[in-house]
């Protein structure tokens, strides 16, 4: 959250480390005095050193860092004015030592830097020549230069036809697009469908449906390409069979000659038809005779079936009677088996009383005792197995507890390895697209980095990022925050937290075009008071609209997401912070 200062002289000022985005807490606005770069200033950043002013540029309007006209002027306590982006780069390159003014060596303190809106108004009113001079003689104010270039007839523009790399002045572009560009779109002269000029020849020769082409069977007619199939049905040069082929005519020739053949060979064809009909009549007579014989056989079989039905009825009646007799016999046999079982039991009892069977009885008793012992041993083994199962469950529970503890220790060790104590954090976020898609679906809502510290006994902090945006930036921007967390040495540290914090998304292309925004804490905000010991952390503070998602994934002259990985940097200004 940025805190505005008040300076004499009627100028509206704000803290330095803010770009064209406002500082916000998670989901809510935290400040209103941020520096903003106007759209015309950002558009002129790439050509500020090639501008030609009508009057000589005053020395105070020249940035001492880049030597160009000052854009979004920021004034230091020494009175010198710098471009916002130049001063921000100077602050970054001077870390960890404090930057100094390149003119008089005065130390630049972020708290004493403010946006000079009065100077900004004067610079925006300076008159400049069009960048296309001397061809264009227009003279406009600096703030209106970009607006003029959008209609300047001498501005170089790229041809918008796909495949064309021509660059022309705006006054010649329309004629080029409509008359001269070899990649322009023109209607086909046959089917009137729009086609690229460079491809229209191939279109006409290979696929245009309205172009008349030669018949593939070499007849003298030309037919539209889309009617070739229809023409085939009547082409006189097509090889066809005589229509009397099924009656035995073997003539095959071009359709016109076959037609003449059919007209000339009527008698021959009639003889073939009569011969075929005679053959069919003979086949019909044979089939009729075979059908008559089969009908006679069916009638004979019917008579035999009736006779067999008459003979089988008495046999079925006899079978039913015999089944009843067999059922009665089975019941009687069952009763006799019961009587036999009773007699056998009686015989066994008599045998026991006689004596010769005593030895066999003793052997049976021993066998029974052995079986009882085996059953007892099996019961003991079953109980022991139950005990072993309970021990296994107990040890499995202990193993799960040790596994969970080991996982927590491993995570704690990883945090200790990644924790820094110099007020800086480099956070590597892998699987960027999968994590962002999961955040779009609502799970998880945000990512939190490992904690880092401003010293061995310093403040404990962490960073939070919403890959799909938070608050005003949801769905359109990357949101980036920092959060104060309860630390072991909070009782010894000065509160509220007052150090300037810079947040950056790092460029992985090697060009060092990092995207950085900074803020100075508001001492009145609860987010910068000492965190309560029982809480997880304070409310996170940062930028809900840190960087548009389209510029994050497809930036110019930078690579913020590479190999599906994003790097976030957090740096705390250690100026004035005495280590314990």
Report on the architecture of this protein.
The protein is α+β, with helices and mostly antiparallel strands. Among the domains are: 37-149, Herpes Virus-1 (2-Layer Sandwich), CATH 3.30.40.10; 417-572, Apoptosis, Tumor Necrosis Factor Receptor Associated Protein 2, Chain A. The protein has 12 helices and 25 strands. The protein has helices at residues 39-44, 84-94, 117-124, 145-149, 170-180, 200-206, 228-232, 255-264, 266-354, 358-418, 432-440, 549-553; strands spanning 24-25, 28-29, 74-75, 81-82, 114-115, 127-129, 139-141, 156-158, 167-169, 185-187, 194-196, 212-214, 222-224, 239-241, 252-254, 424-429, 447-448, 452-453, 460-466, 477-485, 501-505, 515-519, 541-548, 561-562, 565-572. Strand 24 and strand 25 (565-572) form a beta hairpin.
């Amino acid at each position: 959250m940025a805190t505005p200062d008040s300076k004499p002289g009627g100028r509206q000022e704000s803290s330095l480390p803010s770009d064209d985005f406002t500082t916000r807490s998670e989901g809510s606005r935290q400040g209103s005095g941020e520096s903003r770069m106007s759209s015309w200033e950002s558009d002129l950043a790439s050509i500020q050193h090639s501008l030609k002013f009508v009057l000589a540029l005053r020395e105070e309007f020249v940035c001492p860092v880049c030597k160009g006209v000052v854009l979004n002027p920021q004034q230091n306590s020494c009175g010198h004015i710098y471009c916002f982006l130049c001063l921000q780069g100077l602050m970054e390159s001077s870390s960890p030592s404090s930057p100094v003014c390149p003119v008089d060596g005065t130390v630049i303190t972020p708290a004493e830097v403010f946006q000079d809106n009065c100077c900004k108004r004067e610079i925006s009113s300076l008159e400049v020549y069009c960048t296309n001079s001397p061809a264009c003689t227009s003279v406009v104010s600096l703030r209106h230069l970009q607006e003029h270039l959008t209609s300047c007839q001498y501005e170089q523009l790229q041809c918008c036809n796909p495949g064309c790399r021509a660059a022309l002045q705006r006054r010649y572009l329309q004629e080029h697009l409509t008359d001269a560009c070899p990649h322009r779109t023109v209607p086909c002269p046959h089917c009137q469908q729009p086609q690229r000029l460079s491809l229209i020849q191939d279109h006409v020769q290979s696929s245009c449906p309205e172009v008349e082409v030669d018949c593939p069977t070499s007849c003298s007619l030309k037919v539209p390409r889309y009617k070739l199939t229809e023409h085939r049905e009547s082409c006189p040069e097509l090889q066809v069979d005589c229509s009397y082929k099924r009656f035995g005519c073997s003539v095959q020739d071009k359709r016109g000659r076959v037609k003449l053949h059919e007209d000339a060979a009527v008698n021959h064809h009639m003889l073939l038809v009569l011969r075929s009909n005679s053959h069919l009549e003979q086949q019909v007579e044979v089939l009729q005779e075979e059908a008559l014989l089969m009908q006679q056989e069916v009638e004979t079989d019917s008579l035999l079936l009736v006779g067999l039905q008459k003979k089988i009825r008495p046999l079925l009646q006899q079978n039913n009677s015999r089944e009843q007799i067999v059922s009665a016999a089975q019941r009687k046999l069952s009763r006799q088996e019961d009587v036999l079982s009773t007699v056998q039991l009686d015989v066994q009892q008599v045998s026991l009383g006689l004596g010769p069977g005593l030895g066999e009885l003793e052997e049976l008793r021993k066998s029974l005792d052995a079986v009882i012992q085996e059953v007892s041993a099996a019961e003991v083994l079953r109980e022991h197995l139950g005990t072993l199962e309970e021990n296994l469950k107990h040890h499995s529970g202990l193993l799960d507890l040790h596994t969970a503890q080991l996982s927590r220790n491993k995570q704690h060790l990883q945090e200790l390895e990644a924790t820094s104590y110099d007020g800086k954090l480099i956070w590597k976020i892998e699987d960027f697209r999968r994590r962002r898609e999961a955040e779009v679906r609502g799970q998880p809502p945000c990512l939190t980095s490992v904690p880092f510290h401003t010293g061995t006994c310093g403040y404990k902090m962490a960073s939070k990022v919403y890959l799909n945006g938070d608050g005003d930036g949801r769905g359109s921007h990357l949101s980036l925050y920092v959060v104060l967390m309860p630390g072991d040495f909070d009782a010894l540290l000065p509160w509220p937290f007052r150090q300037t914090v810079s947040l950056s998304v790092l460029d992985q292309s090697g060009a060092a075009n990092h995207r950085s925004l900074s803020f100075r804490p508001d001492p009145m905000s609860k987010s910068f008071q000492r965190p309560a010991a029982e809480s997880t952390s304070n409310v996170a503070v940062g930028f809900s609209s840190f960087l548009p998602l389209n510029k994050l994934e497809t930036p110019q002259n930078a690579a913020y997401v590479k190999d599906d990985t994003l790097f976030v940097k957090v740096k705390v200004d250690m100026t004035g912070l005495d280590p314990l």
